[in-house]
Amino acid sequence: MEKVKAFLQRKNIVFSAKRYCIDAMSAMAQGLFCTLLVGTILNTLGQQFHIGFLNAVIVTLGKGDGAVHYTIGGLCSAMVGPAMAVAIGWALQAPPMVLFSLIGVGFATNYMGGAGGPLAVFFVAIIAAEIGKAVSKETKIDILVTPIVTTLAGIGVAALIAAPIGAAAAAVGRFIMWATELQPFFMGILVSVVVGVALTLPISSAAICAALGLTGLAGGAAVAGCCAQMVGFAVMSFRENRWGGLVAQGIGTSMLQMPNIVKNVRVWIPPTLCAAITGPIATCLFHLEMNGAAVSSGMGTCGLVGQIGVYTGWVADVARGAKAAITAADWLGLALISFVLPAVITPLLALPLRKLGWIKDGDLELKL
């Protein structure tokens, strides 16, 4: 047993919730952002502003009726599997030969996983990376052994579990979306609060939403929850952090408040209650839907990705005839849910807590 522990320590293989559920998932979200989200944004910009080079086909795979044409944005989006796998390998501190071998593993796994591909990539990339790390530099022909073992292990595991994991994730996502359609008030509260809390925790709400394919009304509730946390914390802590903190949290991340939450968990009450209020308003009153990329549901106001995702969904709905036009009511709902209501409700909810002494001056100060 001691030899095994020594081997794992030498190979930097650490079985821990932090490394897998926080480090790996957070890195996975970055891989998602740099490919799928950036690709979606570039395609939207090209289509809406008629930018020639963004609309131009730069790669064509196949011939005839089966040919697939890619724009710059489309090509970025197509690389989401490799990007996620490499990001996860990087978070696990995989050596270069393992890291580069995960490119093929990620592409294959995301394809095999179907609609739940991101969750399948999460599990398979972890397994492949750890196996690759175990064999790395153990032979004199490492340049062959490490990439071959990593690739075969990853794609072999993917062949066994990617499809079932993808199907299960997709089923859970469909259930959440179905339940939200059926009970928009109660599910609006639940989804908004849970995804908003996940956004502030050192895990990835974006990766969770992408893995479950969370779109539609449930996606709209998720956007509401994320915005409640980000904008809520930004405005509530303005007296301590001023404009720098407003920007860092409002279009950056509310995760910056985690050290303060650990010190005084009561500071988390106002934005979380705000999410419970704005979630059902989004689902029941404004019928806010996220029909863009599912990963956008868990981004909130981070780089305005959540809002761009909602807009992208509107454009797609209009193009396929599911929506007649983008109305003033749509824009009003998005503005209220994303910015106005969190900015007003959260500080108001914080006032009695400040009077009770539950939140004191300095409790929300960021160490920027």
How is this fold's topology laid out?
Layout: H1 2-10, H2 17-49, H3 52-55, E1 59-61, E2 68-70, H4 72-78, H5 80-91, H6 96-113, H7 117-135, H8 142-182, H9 184-200, H10 205-212, H11 216-236, H12 238-250, H13 258-263, H14 269-285, H15 305-319, H16 328-356
Antiparallel strand pairs: 1-2
Task: Report on this structure.
- The protein is mainly alpha-helical and 368 residues long.
- The protein has two domains: 2-168, no CATH class; 183-356, no CATH class.
- Helices cover 73% and strands 2% of the residues.
- Strands 1-2 form a two-stranded antiparallel sheet.
- β1 (59-61) and β2 form a beta hairpin.
- α5 (80-91) crosses α6 (96-113), α8 (142-182) packs antiparallel against α9 (184-200) and α11 packs across α16.
- It is globular.
Structure summary:
With 368 residues, the protein is mainly α. It is 73% helix and 2% strand.
Overall tally of structural domains: 2
Estimate the global geometry from the Cα principal axes: globular
Number of helices: 16
Overall pLDDT level: 92
The low-confidence parts are none
Run of helices and strands: HHHEEHHHHHHHHHHHHH
What percent of residues adopt helix (DSSP H or I)?
over 70%
Ends: how far apart? 44 Å
Give the tally of β-strands: 2
- Rg (C-alpha, Å): 22 Å
* SS-based class: mainly alpha
Looking across the biggest beta sheet, what order are the strands in? Answer: 1-2
What's the main sheet like? 2 strands, antiparallel
Strand content: under 5%
